[in-house]
Amino acid sequence: MKKDSRWWEYYVVRYFVGTIFGAGILVVLNSYQDNILHSVLQGDNTPLSSLTGYGLVMYLGLGLAFCYIASAPLFCFHALRGLLDVRGKVTWASLAVFLISVVSILIMRFAFGMTIFDWRTLSLLGVVVVVSIQISMLGEAFWKKLDPVVNFYGKLAVTRSNSKPATQEYVESYRHLREHGNAFGIMLFELILGLSIASVANIYSVALILLAWIAPAVFVWLVATVLEIRMV
């Protein structure tokens, strides 16, 4: 079918610009004097114009990896999109995100003496917000025994099985819209992740940020497993 022969377009739209953008962020991190990753990827004071083919491939490869890591929250949001309430009701998950954010601001300000409107504080707060949204969504999903998620995928499968041209065109339309949204969302998350890495002073803090960033996405495996079990 036509849509099957163009499956690769979604991945190109999603990761092409993000790879280049991610490589650019790594170049900046490598050259930023006060960053823990300074001169790790490339020698100190080495101009970009002197990049060899190997160096360019290295940055693009690492840019793709950085892009993929940065996209972890979107993966979690996509898996749990059945929880989204288009009626605008305020759920306990929304309140949880708000409370976690407020508590984080208070801890940063009074426990660590950080200036609230400093770029370092804001970038770390961005990580807290992104991670807390995922945790709250996962908490809500498992609290409800994944019933809303399972019901959503079941109804979606039935609807997508409709072979009417209008249905297929509708599906193609929102898929294209979402993939472009994914591409812009990935760049935003790359920026948040890059700034947060630049804001810390040691490699252990970098590891902690990356662990917190990708950990919620690991639980999507459980979501997929429950979907599989409920099907048989």
Summarize the entry for a quick read.
By secondary structure, the protein is mostly helical. It has helices at 2-5, 7-31, 53-70, 72-79, 92-111, 119-143, 147-160, 165-199, 203-218, 220-231.
Topology diagram in text:
Layout: H1 2-5, H2 7-31, H3 53-70, H4 72-79, H5 92-111, H6 119-143, H7 147-160, H8 165-199, H9 203-218, H10 220-231
Describe the protein's architecture and organization.
It is built from ten helices and no strands. By secondary structure, the chain is mainly α. It has one domain. The chain starts with a helix and ends with a helix. This is Small-conductance mechanosensitive channel. Keywords: Membrane, Transmembrane, Transmembrane helix. The chain crosses the membrane at residues 12-32, 52-80, 92-112, 124-143, 183-201, 207-227.
Span of the ends, CA to CA: 28 Å
The low-confidence runs, each spanning 5 or more residues with pLDDT under 50, are none
How many domains? The number is 1
What would the principal axes of the Cα set say about the shape? globular
Structural class: mainly alpha
Mean pLDDT across every amino acid position = 84
Rg on CA atoms, Å: 20 Å
Most strands sheet: none
Report strand %. Answer: under 5%
Listing every helix as H and every strand as E from the N terminus to the C terminus, the arrangement reads: HHHHHHHHHH
Number of helices, counting only DSSP H or I runs of 4 residues or more: 10
Count of strand segments? 0
Helical content band: over 70%
Keywords: Membrane, Transmembrane, Transmembrane helix
Protein name: Small-conductance mechanosensitive channel
Transmembrane segments: 12-32, 52-80, 92-112, 124-143, 183-201, 207-227
